[in-house]
Amino acid sequence: MQVQLTNRQQHILWATVRHYIATAEPVGSKALVEEYKLRVSPATIRNAMGVLEKAGLLYQPHTSAGRVPSDSGYRIYVNDLISPSDVSTRQVEQVLHDLRKWEDWSLEALLHGAAQILATVSGCITLITMPQTNTTTLRHLQLVLVDPGRVMVIVVTDDYETQSALMQLPSVEDTQPDPEVVERELQILSNFLNSQLRGRSLAELAVLDWTQLDREFQSYGDFLKSFLADLTRRNKPTATTQIMVRGVSEVLRQPEFSQLQQVQTIIHLLEEEQDQLLPLIFEEPEVGKRRVTIRIGSENPLEPIRSCTLISSTYRRGAVPVGSVGVLGPTRMDYETAIAVVEAAADYLSQALS
Fold first, then answer.
1. Heat-inducible transcription repressor HrcA C-terminal domain spans which residues (predicted)?
2. pTM, full prediction
């Protein structure tokens, strides 16, 4: 649900989240006036916080308590109210640059060192996967019209495995497409895609330059991008991929992890069920959006981490995503720092592999 906030409401939401991140205590209007020197009365702040609560962005853990950000409140905070920390980016870049001076280190040792640095700077659990060396490449792609509104996309890989999916054609109002015209366009489009993608890894499908499509084929772009993104997801690294984990002891000192059972479920996921975690941290961000993928609280599909935030990004060899780096911590994390360190680490590992 899209929530429209005034500038004052945005500022009060920002201040509430910042104060809660720093203190882990429910936030009241008086604390905001004193801490952030807001030039309005506590009553005005209480009214604004009441509006934010009705919008589902804040909640009261107890009747007499202050407010706490909800997952939706954190989402607006992350999407609209902050930018990654330049200070944290420079700090991580410098430390990682110093790490690379050890020329006799193996790649695995380099990844272990990077994971430890990220855990220290972010205060979160750090997750880094080993780079993938075996990649599936595309041999042939064909678009076939099966009825006036649907197309079957058929992909043949280098090991002659065939994958297919039915896709809905983009609809054009008040017009009925001529099947012969559509079939001719699909053949031309198939030829274009084969010329662009044959011999390239499936991981590269997401980086196809769609601006090369002629204008009359642009209408197919969205459904093709959707299919290629789905195909890329289905060819993610296998469950045997190792995830390096660092920083567990630090983050588990946070008050959110005071219950032993919750801690045990997270530890079990990290140690015994990495195959469930892998698809989440190896997900490519949406094109044109932030370079990291951010899952806040209930946005996580795995029950053990639904009280956590997972921030991840892929690192690359050339244009191909071959591994991932991420941080896992409470939803009450320092998002500016966490986003910055994940982006900086992904850039660093991409440069190291090049």
1. 108-339
2. 0.74
